[in-house]
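Course assignment 3, question 2. Fill in each field.
Student: A.L.
Task: Predict the tertiary structure for the chain below.
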Amino acid sequence: MKKSILCLGLSLLFLACSSDDDSGNGSNEDNVVGKWITISIKEDGEEISNECDLKEVYEIKADNTFSWQDYEEVEDVLENGTIEVTGCEKGDLFTGNFEVKGDEFILKFDDEDDDEISNFKFENGNLILFGEGYSETLKRI
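Answer field:
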């Protein structure tokens, strides 16, 4: 599920219409180049992000490659059998290439056979990634 959200999120990074671009300069590919951190994830309008989601960094490069550092929750089982989240640790580092074709952004993960295809917009200097019932806001770092 988390990788599906990532795929949607990264895919959406590259599909903004230039009229939605706050910077007014450069192409959509130029505008998304850089490092971005997640500041919010919503599903059906409800915030679903956790502390670890808010540490995840996307690096989008001018050579049409990307990386995404995942963070996982660290859990401890207490004496009474309940599970407690005690922090975050680095998870997988996902990498790949992307391609923009018209209104489509095609995301190709190095370790996957299937491509992911999606949309996005800029708003107040942030990237707003969205899909059916899902949105993710990323801030440039």
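Instructor remarks: Strands lie at 34-43, 46-47, 57-60, 65-77, 83-101, 104-109, 116-118, 120-123, 126-131, 134-140. The two ends are 26 Å apart (CA to CA).
Grade: pending
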